[in-house]
Design a protein that fits this description.
By secondary structure, the chain is mainly beta. The chain has four domains: about 160 residues, Immunoglobulin-like; about 290 residues, Coagulation Factor XIII, Chain A, domain 2 (Alpha-Beta Complex), CATH 3.90.260; about 110 residues, Immunoglobulin-like, CATH 2.60.40; about 90 residues, Immunoglobulins (Immunoglobulin-like). Helices cover about 15% and strands about 40% of the residues. The strands form ten sheets. Strands 1, 2, 3, 4, 5, 6, 7, 8, 9, 10 and 11 form an eleven-stranded mixed beta sheet that branches. It starts with a helix and ends with a strand. The N terminus is likely disordered.
């Protein structure tokens, strides 16, 4: 059916009572442009050859030529001209004879999509004038020689971004003569963070180099006490990635006329990067079985994911939050919107958005896993994109949160943002889009609530400092971590923090105050819980310390509950239960060690080697309950990468990846991946098994494409062990 429909549509536009023309959201489709557009009846003796005719057009589109150099687009692995809006570029036109300004008249036409219209910005006629105005379309002749002229062309700083078709039109008395359709002179126009008139203008050159031009990054995982880092290849300049990113906007059905607006682009991108409700790029899976797909931990970068989606048009399996954020970062940087990858540690996934995460305890003080619905993610990743917000009051431009991980729907679709970081900090959550949701992710309180036999809820403890404890991104110009917590919130306990909270509550964020509940904090005994750092596959010990500050003797019944959890804080299996009675002497502290054996956890260990411990202690004499919880992440072994000899652009060299299996078991179904933007496309290799204590060596021949500092990134994936990474910075020399 679809075929006959489309052929019918070609011949005759369908009647539609609502629109004169169908919606225009494909950058790929084209209309036919007549080479001769006659004004009326053409006289018999008319010969187009008598008039000025275009013989050739030079775009100066090679990476070393003026346009790509001045527009910072020389890294794109793409043969066509790529420029940034609001900045002049040059082309040369060769005519069949010298150009005579007095009598000859020609102009340029830039077209996009199938129904180009001038008022929609998809048909842009550019006349040749005497001077260029900043930020407005125009062209002027800067050089004339023999039959050639050189033009400087200025694009509008608000024009839509994407791929335009270029025609040169010459006026004759009887009609307009146009150049023939030539895809080699198509021109991509992108956002311009270097242009003061562009909505994405960023005034710091080092930040532009990081947030627009850097094609590798560092992601932060693990948990707040034990931050783990790994590299990610964004690869926004790799072959076909720019076209894949433009295809995403077509897939999201964003009208071509809206593509000059970074707010709209971010909003649709946050929806189309995940596959929920629109067959977008990546399928999320938090199940730890990844049938018929790639485990989220195995990806080393965005390029494979985007290219697979671009060619198959089917959602790619599988991703988790850092993958969604990594791909969205590539998309934004590729189009020229400054972007960075953010990690929020102890991120609240609050099911009823009341800024309160309830952990329920039963009558004896043990955690009730059946009633506890809210989860605290060890970390959650999202993106920030830099832009002005003319749709909001002054002061809310700058970094905006955009989150492509499908958590909750927003206006009926799984998407989130753009939401102003400044508005979140000050509690102005009334401003679009999705600010209350992001506010709750970084600002909840944890309530330890005991449910008595008759159903009464008694709050035994409140932790106000844990949610959104640390918010980080990669530092500019280096691989270290930059703490940006203060961009999102005022210091815990400060007057400004309280004011921001009151503002958020005034704008509708639900907040139950502690006063509404019966809560008497326990003051004369406190409890601390520490875990020893350990590598995956080893035994380790945890220590519970009870400190009695009173003059009374107490006895405490203490429960330790250990869960193997996903990084989202959702438990998979309870693997450790331990209870003991402790005697607490007056004014003294007592410590108790508990050993966690590898045999207790290895069979069910999840890929991020993550545990969650709850400790509750009931003071028998007073009936008071103390509660603490802690996430513990074990050390996962790493891959070693080395190179043999010097790496020279265009010459073959060897890269060696090594891994030693430290576990007390054989690894089955091992897959290795290696990639490095500008050095090699991703290579995968399957290995059957690696016995315990044995070392695997994989040699790969590579031919680096361009000189400069580059990064190789590798990952190992197997049934029992995931999240194994290695990386190496390599200097590639000029040949």
């Amino acid at each position: 059916i679809s075929e006959t429909m489309s052929t019918r549509e070609e011949n005759k536009l369908p009647l539609n009572g609502r629109r004169a023309i169908p919606p225009n959201y494909s950058n790929d489709e084209e209309n036919e442009v007549p080479e001769m557009e006659a004004f009326g009846v053409i006289p018999r003796g008319f010969n187009p050859r008598d008039y000025l005719r275009v013989v050739d057009i030079y775009m100066f589109k090679d990476p070393h030529e003026i346009n790509k150099q001045e527009h910072h687009t020389d890294k794109y692995y793409n043969p066509r001209l790529i420029v940034r809006r609001g900045q002049a570029f040059q082309i040369q036109i060769d005519f069949n004879r010298p150009y005579k300004p007095q009598s000859d008249q020609f102009w340029l036409e830039f077209l996009m999509g199938r129904f180009p219209e001038q008022n929609k910005g998809t048909y842009i006629p550019v006349q040749v004038g005497n001077a260029l105005k900043p930020g407005q379309w125009g062209a002027k002749i800067i050089h004339r020689e023999n039959n050639s002229i050189r033009l400087s062309i200025m694009s509008s700083s608000t024009c839509i971004i994407g791929k335009f078709r270029l025609y040169v039109a010459v006026l004759t008395p009887f009609g307009i003569l146009r150049t023939r359709r030539n895809s080699a002179i198509d021109i991509y126009i992108l956002f311009n963070p270097w242009c003061q008139l562009d909505a994405v203008y960023l005034d710091d050159e080092k930040e532009r180099e990081e947030y627009v031009l850097n094609d590798v990054g560092v992601l932060f995982q693990g948990n707040v006490e034990d931050v783990k880092t790994r590299s990610w290849s964004y690869g926004q300049f790799e072959e076909n990635i720019l076209d894949a990113c433009l295809f995403l906007m077509d897939k999201a059905e964003l009208e071509l006329s809206g593509r000059g607006n970074p707010i709209k682009i971010c909003r649709v991108a946050s929806a189309v990067i995940n596959s929920r409700d629109d067959d977008g790029v990546i399928v999320g899976s938090w199940k730890s079985t990844y049938d018929y797909g790639v485990a989220p931990s195995a990806w080393t970068g965005s390029v494979d994911i985007l290219l697979e989606y671009y060619s198959s048009k089917q959602p790619v399996r599988y991703g988790q939050c850092w993958v969604f954020a990594g791909v969205l970062n590539t998309f934004l940087r590729c189009l020229g919107i400054p972007a960075r990858h953010i990690t929020n540690y102890s991120s609240a996934h609050d099911n009823n958005a009341n800024l309160r995460l309830d952990l329920f305890l039963d009558d004896e003080g043990k955690v009730d896993t059946r009633l506890t619905k809210d989860s605290i993610w060890n970390y959650h990743c999202w993106n920030e994109a830099w832009m002005t917000r003319p749709d909001l009051p002054v002061g809310f431009g700058g970094w905006q949160v955009v989150d492509a991980t499908p958590q909750e729907t927003s206006d009926g679709m799984y998407r989130c943002g753009p939401s102003s970081v400044q508005a979140i900090k000050h509690g102005h959550v009334c401003f679009q889009f999705d600010a209350p949701f992001v506010y709750a992710e970084v600002n909840g309180d944890i309530f330890y609530t005991r449910i008595e036999k008759n159903g009464t809820q008694v709050v035994e403890g409140v932790d106000t400092a844990r949610i959104g404890k640390l918010i980080v991104t990669k530092e500019v110009g280096g691989d270290g971590m930059m703490d940006i917590t203060e961009e999102y919130k005022f210091r815990e306990g400060s007057d400004e923090e309280r004011l921001a909270l009151e503002t958020a509550v005034m704008y509708g964020v639900k907040k139950q105050s502690v006063q509404d509940t019966t809560y008497q904090p326990q003051t004369d005994v406190d409890m601390d819980f520490q875990a020893q750092k350990a590598a995956l596959g080893n035994d380790f010990k945890v220590t519970i310390t009870l400190r009695n500050k009173s003059r009374n003797s107490y006895t405490a019944t203490t429960y330790l509950l250990g869960n193997i959890v996903f990084y989202t804080g959702v438990p998979k299996r309870e693997f450790k239960k331990h209870s003991f009675s402790a005697k607490l002497e007056p004014s003294s502290s007592s410590s108790f060690d508990i050993v966690i054996k590898s045999s207790e956890y290895m069979s069910d260990m999840l890929e991020q080697a993550s545990f969650h411990f709850f400790v509750t202690a009931r003071i028998n004499e007073t009936g008071k309950i103390l509660a603490v919880q802690k996430a513990v992440v074990l050390e996962i072994p790493t891959l070693r990468i080395k190179t043999e000899g010097a790496l020279v652009a265009g010459k073959e060299a060897s890269v060696i990846v090594e891994f030693t299996n430290p576990l007390k078991q054989t690894l089955e179904n091992v897959t290795l991946r290696l990639e490095g933007p500008g050095v090699l496309r991703t290579i995968k290799k399957q290995f059957g098994r690696i016995p315990m204590n044995s070392t695997l060596t994989w040699e790969v021949k590579v031919t680096p494409m361009r000189p400069g500092l580059r990064r190789l990134i590798a990952s190992l994936n197997s049934d029992a062990l995931r999240h194994v990474y290695g990386e190496l910075n390599v200097q590639i020399q000029k040949p």
